[in-house]
Design goal:
The chain is an alpha/beta fold. The protein has five helices and eight strands. Helix content is about 25%, strand content about 25%. The radius of gyration is 16 Å and the shape is globular.
Length: about 190
């Protein structure tokens, strides 16, 4: 059985919005895009990406990635090859197949059943990157098997948060942790 692994960059105050660049996501006036760049040299994301069997993406993250990865600079080639060639499953109510980015398809509705079916298939784990609204839904339906959080020592004072604000109690257990030389805490959790 495949696992759903959520890999997220987070600020210390719990924001996941726009870690990669100033113009990545300025919605709601977010002005601190790119906050992760100063901390990311040792984040170990490449083994997760190369080891993933497929990617689960929300619509907004899919569109951002589909615009970047097919023509990514050679300097990030070790990332672009798996991003471009591995299957990508997109949670969207507005996109329809066929999708332009190779090996991409829209998940059928309802989402919980579609993801549960993917978990039953053979193949490597399903990796979620970004996609905060998708993560909310996956958590609410008990479909996340592992949370890998890279918590940077920075406060941004507001923005899109990773965890749903629904009042539900979701106990977790710490599976692994490390602290990088830049002060980022990489903590891996599984449902308790």
């Amino acid at each position: 059985m495949r696992k759903v692994i959520v890999n997220e960059f987070l600020t210390l105050d719990g924001v996941a919005q726009a870690p990669g660049g100033p113009d990545e996501d300025t919605s709601s006036g977010f002005a601190h895009g790119g906050w992760h760049l100063a901390y990311g040299a040792e984040d170990g994301v490449l083994p997760l990406i190369t080891g993933a069997g497929a990617f689960l993406l929300g619509r907004w993250t899919y569109e951002l990635f589909a615009d970047y990865w097919p023509s990514a600079p050679e300097a990030v080639g070790e990332f672009s090859e798996p991003m471009n060639t591995k299957p990508k499953y997109v949670a969207s109510r507005t996109l329809t197949d066929p999708l332009a980015w190779q090996n991409s398809s829209v998940l059928p509705s309802p989402l919980p059943e579609a993801v549960a079916a993917l978990k039953e298939e053979d193949g490597g784990d399903l990796l979620v990157i970004g996609s905060t609204l998708l993560v909310h839904s996956l958590l609410q339906h008990g479909l996340v098997d592992e949370l890998r959080l890279m918590i940077d020592p920075v406060l941004v004072g507001g923005g899109k948060r990773l965890f749903p604000d629904d009042g539900a109690l979701r106990p977790l257990r710490l599976v692994d942790h490390e602290v990088t030389s830049t002060g980022t805490i990489i903590a891996t959790y599984a449902p308790a």
